[in-house]
């Protein structure tokens, strides 16, 4: 057996005070009008170049006035009264379910009867939504697969930092040179270290037997550990050394890491030579360059 309690027939706070209800409506309309003006001003400030402190103040005003309007609406125009119910079994009777349906219907009436406030709420919400669109532009373009690609492409000539093309005879045995794809000397991801290992025997992975040219091999200069430039070469041991954390790579074994925190080999750039003797790339790197977390799933 459950306890029952009385449901009020009508619980509108200002039901018998139409003048007071209209005053409340005007007050709510002012709040939501402030929201609309503040939100549109916020959008204008953002489009004009932005000013974080002023934008924050406008957002506070817009949301605060929107909340004030909703609070006043709920307090003065929505039906409601304090109810006390038992804490034990709460199986609803048919009468209670009907009363609940009626209560929901009564809750709809303030919106139905006050279409002006409903329009003001829609205007305020629309202005806020409009203002919220602009900051999305600050997130920047979607990176897509840009971290998996560099500026190297088929036929790109190898050039020095000052833009001079590299000829196959320019680098002596055990010589080292930092190179970039022609036209992209400012692309840090594309920086590559070119080494002439001469006749030193190399361990070559299947399918890469044509990636070197007359002893010239090329590997990404961006360390796969933390992105530092790998630029120190020990010609006696044919090893590249990263000065940041001492990761060491065996050049004759496809720059496999043999010491330090780096966990993967330096990506290799496939080389070719043109008829005029200038070194070019066969294609871009076949794996992402830089720190290993760039290509983790």
Describe this structure in words.
The protein is 32% helix and 13% strand. α1 (18-47) runs antiparallel to α2 and α1 (18-47) runs parallel beside α4. The strands form three sheets. A five-stranded antiparallel beta sheet has the order 1-2-3-4-9, with no helix packed on it. A four-stranded antiparallel beta sheet has the order 5-6-7-8, with no helix packed on it. It folds into two domains: 18-139; 145-297, Rieske [2Fe-2S] iron-sulphur domain (Rieske Iron-sulfur Protein). It is built from four helices and eleven strands. The protein has helices spanning 18-47, 52-76, 94-113, 115-133, and strands at 158-159, 176-181, 192-196, 216-220, 232-234, 239-241, 248-250, 256-259, 268-269, 271-273, 279-281.
CATH class of the largest domain: Mainly Beta
Instruction: Give the name of the CATH architecture of the largest domain.
Output: 3-layer Sandwich
Low-confidence stretches: 1-5
Helical content band:
25-40%
Biggest pleated-sheet summary: 5 strands, antiparallel
Domains (count): 2
- What class, by secondary structure content? alpha+beta
The rounded Rg comes to: 36 Å
In total, the number of strands is: 11
- Determine the CATH topology of the largest domain: Rieske Iron-sulfur Protein
The CATH homologous superfamily of the largest domain corresponds to Rieske [2Fe-2S] iron-sulphur domain
* Spatial ordering of strands, largest sheet: 1-2-3-4-9
Portion in beta strands? 5-15%
């Amino acid at each position: 057996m459950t306890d029952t309690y009385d449901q009020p027939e009508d619980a509108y706070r200002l039901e018998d005070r139409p003048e007071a209800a209209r005053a409340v409506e005007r007050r709510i309309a002012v709040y939501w009008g402030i929201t609309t003006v503040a939100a549109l001003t916020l959008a204008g400030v953002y489009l004009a170049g932005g000013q974080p402190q002023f934008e924050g103040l406008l957002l506070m005003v817009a949301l605060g006035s929107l909340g004030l309007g909703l609070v006043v609406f709920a307090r003065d125009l929505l039906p409601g009264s304090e109810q006390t119910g038992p804490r034990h079994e709460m199986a609803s009777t048919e009468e209670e379910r009907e009363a609940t349906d009626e209560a929901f219907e009564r809750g709809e009436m303030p919106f139905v009867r006050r279409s002006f406030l409903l329009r003001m709420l829609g205007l305020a919400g629309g202005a806020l939504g409009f203002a919220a669109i602009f900051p999305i532009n600050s997130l920047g373009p979607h990176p897509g697969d840009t971290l998996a690609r560099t500026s190297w492409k088929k036929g790109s000539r190898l050039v020095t930092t000052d833009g001079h093309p590299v000829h196959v005879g320019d680098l002596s045995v055990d010589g080292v040179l930092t190179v970039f794809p022609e036209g992209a000397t400012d692309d840090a991801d594309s920086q590559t270290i070119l080494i002439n290992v001469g006749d030193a025997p190399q361990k070559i992975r299947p399918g890469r037997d044509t990636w070197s040219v007359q002893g010239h091999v090329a590997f990404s200069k961006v360390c796969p550990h933390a992105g530092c430039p790998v630029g120190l070469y020990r010609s006696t041991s044919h090893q590249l050394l990263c000065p940041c954390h001492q990761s060491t790579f065996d050049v004759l074994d496809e720059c496999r890491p043999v010491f330090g925190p780096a966990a993967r080999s330096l990506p290799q750039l496939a080389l070719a030579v043109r008829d005029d003797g200038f070194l070019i790339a066969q294609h871009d790197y076949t794996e992402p360059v830089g720190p290993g977390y760039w290509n983790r799933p």
